[in-house]
Amino acid sequence: MKDTYKTITKASPEVLFKDRNSKFFGYAFPVKTEDEANLHLEELKSKHHKARHWCYAWQLGKSDFQYRANDDGEPSNSAGMPIYGQIQSFEVTNILIVVVRYFGGVKLGVGGLINAYKTAAQMALEEADIITYTIDEVFEISFDYPEMNIVMRLIKENKLSVIEQKLALDCKIYISVRKKEADAIFEKFNSTYKVGIKRMEH
Predict the structure, then answer these.
(1) DSSP class per residue in 53-78
(2) Which of 1, 29, 105, 117 gives 82 a disulfide partner, CB atoms 3.0 to 4.6 angstroms apart?
(3) What's the confidence (pLDDT) of residue 93?
């Protein structure tokens, strides 16, 4: 079971690819929603208001992916899909890649366009800091004070990360567990006398 994903945490530096007087500016942005992607697009459209095309692709999700690729007026599949192909090739997600084109007066043909958009997207990704994260599940462990030592020992033995503790009349501790270890950890707490555990939606 794959329980890691790759993404970027900050926008990549602007890159530029030129072909026969046409300029292709490439950008990569970290995004978590389609609305965020649209905001970056609007910013680039005002920054490059004299450009001819703002082609892009994005992919969202950690294991169930959704994506969109847009040719923005270029011939069908000559821009958006080559950009998306680079997202797949670098295996990144929660990312938006935009390539802004200034037309240089010479038509490049579909093959030339595919190459230009692919190269600008690739250059943007090569400049980005790509980081690998684990896909985690969050559990709520509930217990009374006498069980505190047992719970803390289990957390320590299994090197679990505690996200939050609520210690009032009864105790609740929230832990984060790598997806592939989640079932085993769940069982350990579930089979401990007087300790409750449940999966949290997150």
Answers:
(1) EEEEEEEE-SSS-EEEEE-TTSSTTS
(2) 117
(3) 97
